[in-house]
Amino acid sequence: MADTRWLMPDELDAWIPLAGLALFLPGYLDEALKPHGLTFFEYSTLSALSHADDRTLPMTSLAHLANGSLSRMSHTTRRLEQRGWLRRAPGPDDRRVTLVSLTDHGHQTLVDAAPVHVESVRRAVFDVLTPEQVPQLARIGRSIVESIN
Fold first, then answer.
1. What is the average pLDDT across 46-63?
2. Could you tell me the pTM of the whole model?
3. Phi first, then psi: what are they for 57, rounded to 5°?
4. Angle between helices 70-82 and 40-50 (to 10 degrees)
5. CA–CA distance, 78 with 91 (Å, rounded to integer)
6. How confident is the model at residue 34 (pLDDT cuts 50, 70, 90)?
7. Helix (H) or strand (E) holding 5
């Protein structure tokens, strides 16, 4: 234990609210999307597909864009496909690649849920930050995600 780099008081002051954010924010965003039959991760999946060319991405790219593991994305896309919100198909050039496409029904679900999601993000995050803090949050978030991804 002599080599343990214990958190300094200022680091602990930063870590405790960050841990709270990591624990509470996903549930808060899930709750807002619940009336639309979506979780935050499912919404992120549909959203990533909606921004792609032809609303189609390889599964690995989709997992990366939605900030999830390939395993989690595989389970999520199976559920969303059963609802008719997306389709999965083998890649035309490499059958080991799974292509995921957003259906019109899935796109409409996303369009319907977007205002509720954006408002919940605004309330939870941006309404409590100053304009100067927004780019700081972006830099901090990117640094943390890059270090663990």
1. 96
2. 0.90
3. -145, 150
4. 80
5. 17
6. very high
7. none
